[in-house]
Amino acid sequence: MGDGVLAAQGVPHTPVPAYATDLDGRPLLLLPKDSALVKALDGEEDLPATLRICDVAPVPLADRVRGRAWLHGWLTELPPAGLRAAALRLSRPHPRPELLDLAAEEPPRDGEWTVLTMDVAQVEIEDAWGGATLEPEEYAAAAPDPFVAIGAGILAHLDSCHRDELKGLLPMSASPSGAPEGLPEVRPLGLDRYGMWLRCSAPSPDAGGTFDLRLTFDEPVSDLLGLRRVYRHLFAHATP
After folding, report:
1. Contacts of 234 (CB under 8 A, 6+ apart)
2. Which of 17-26, 99-108, 216-225 has the lowest mean pLDDT?
């Protein structure tokens, strides 16, 4: 999970300390009520804006940004009746104290925080392999990745306990010397239902630079049990 920033015409860029989506995929955005953007909504039915999100790897790396997304649409403020459900959804990925009051049975009307939602008109995405533009129907039909909530913990575990096994997943052609000791150092960068990203760094400056490698699974994985089966198969056939 990376940082989120809202941009709207005539309003300073506004950091979003917590964001999630509702059951229909609409972004839910936690903001302080005294922010310039929330004040710009006062008296308006909606406000055109862009939500920029950076996808940041949980593993400490020199360049941790895996991709970026820009969601263009119209912002509205949730009515008090919707704040509790929104705060509970936001608290799952972002257990922040600011959400405690909003998640109360009757959220305080004079609280310091509120939740905005966005009706998405278009989405742009970009990563190391290219970019794409999604229409609202495509965005709404997309299913969340099964590892979005637990992927960070899995990657941290692989990085701390299984770096040698990850190196063994590389083809011997990745070694300039043709020997296992010439293989790049490998760190886990990303995980989804279709595969993994690996950050590969040459063991010495003379052996080349740093590059990212996409390791595609034979078939999409839908749960943790299936992911463990994939890992066992991959590590069993890794280079010794």
Report:
1. 169, 215
2. 99-108
